[in-house]
């Protein structure tokens, strides 16, 4: 194995917390706009908007490239390995291991994001050797702050991450969960 090999497996299926996190497939493309083409997702995430079938194909292609180069892994959130209800992401960077998520509007209120984050954090700790996983959230995003709190993350005393996305400024807080 070369030193440039991806730390992520080509195919993956994680289970726990009553969920199955699995690879996105071509068969999921028609379902993706209903999950991601929503004002909340457009506002709070970097996911493109509007999100149509063309955007879904581009996202699937991007997911595969990011995984192959070892940068990130995006998995469909399901309860049984079937229909996708949202997405959970793990991104490896020099500053650490970051998680992210987006749950389709029709599937909210079931703690899917909390459970998916816990499963992905366990994978990061157990399989990738991460010492800490982080969530980067806007303080005004009450739903995501609730996910972080319920998943056991704590607000870290680090500088805000500021920038602009989709024509609006943002300031992200960093929430952390440590191994053990």
From TrEMBL:
Residues 19-171 form the N-acetyltransferase domain. The keyword Iron does not apply. InterPro entries: Acyl_CoA_acyltransferase (IPR016181), GNAT_dom (IPR000182), Ribosomal_N-acetyltransferase (IPR051908). Gene3D superfamilies: 3.40.630.30. GO terms for cellular component: cytoplasm. One of its GO terms (molecular function) is protein-N-terminal-alanine acetyltransferase activity. Keywords: Transferase. The keyword Transferase applies. This is GNAT family N-acetyltransferase.
């Amino acid at each position: 194995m070369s030193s440039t090999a991806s730390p992520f497996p080509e195919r993956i299926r994680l289970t726990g917390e009553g969920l199955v996190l699995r690879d996105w497939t071509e068969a999921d493309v028609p379902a993706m706009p209903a999950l991601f083409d929503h004002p909340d997702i457009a506002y709070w995430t970097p996911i493109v908007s509007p999100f149509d079938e063309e955007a879904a194909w581009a996202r699937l292609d991007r997911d595969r490239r990011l995984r192959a180069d070892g940068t990130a892994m995006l998995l469909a959130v399901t309860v049984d390995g079937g229909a996708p209800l949202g997405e959970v992401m793990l991104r490896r960077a020099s500053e650490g291991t970051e998680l992210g998520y987006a749950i389709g509007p029709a599937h909210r209120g079931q703690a899917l994001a909390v459970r998916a984050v816990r499963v992905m954090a366990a994978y990061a700790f157990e399989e990738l050797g991460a010492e800490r996983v982080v969530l980067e959230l806007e303080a005004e995003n009450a739903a995501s702050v609730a996910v972080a709190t319920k998943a056991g993350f704590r607000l870290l005393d680090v500088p805000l991450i500021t920038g602009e996305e989709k024509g609006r400024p943002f300031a992200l807080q960093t929430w952390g969960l440590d191994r053990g």
